[in-house]
Amino acid sequence: MADREQPYDPYIPNGGANTQPGAQGQNGGNQRTAALQAEIDSTVGIMRDNINKVSERGARLDSLQDKTDNLAVSAQGFRRGANRVRKQMWWKDMKMRMCLIVGIIILLAVIIVPSVVATR
Fold this sequence. Notes:
It is a single-pass type IV membrane protein. Residues 32-92 form the V-SNARE coiled-coil homology domain. This protein has 1 helix and no strands. The chain has one helix at residues 25-119. The longest helix has 95 residues, at 25-119. The radius of gyration is 46 Å and the shape is rod-shaped.
C-alpha cells in the first residue's frame, strides 16, 4: 500500500520535493501546472471584475431608467400646464377683442345716432 501513488491534486502543493524517486519531468510539470493555475486565477480575477462592472452598469441603467421616467412625467405635466395657459390666453384675447368691438359699436352709435337725429 505504501507504493501506491497519491491522486493528483493541483491545489495541494508538493512542497518543492519530489516524493517519487526518479521523477525528473515532474518538476517541469509542476511549473507548467503552476503557470496554468496562475493564468486561470488571472482569468478568474478578470471575469470577477467584468461581473462587477456589469452589475454596476445595471445599477446605473436602473438609475437612468428612473430618471427617464421622472422626466417623462415632468414633461407630461409641463405639456398640460402649457395647454392650460394657452387656453387662458386665448380667452383673454377673445375678451379683449369683444371689448374692442363693443367699444367701436358704442363709439359709432354715439357719432351716428346724433347726426341721424339732427338731420330729421
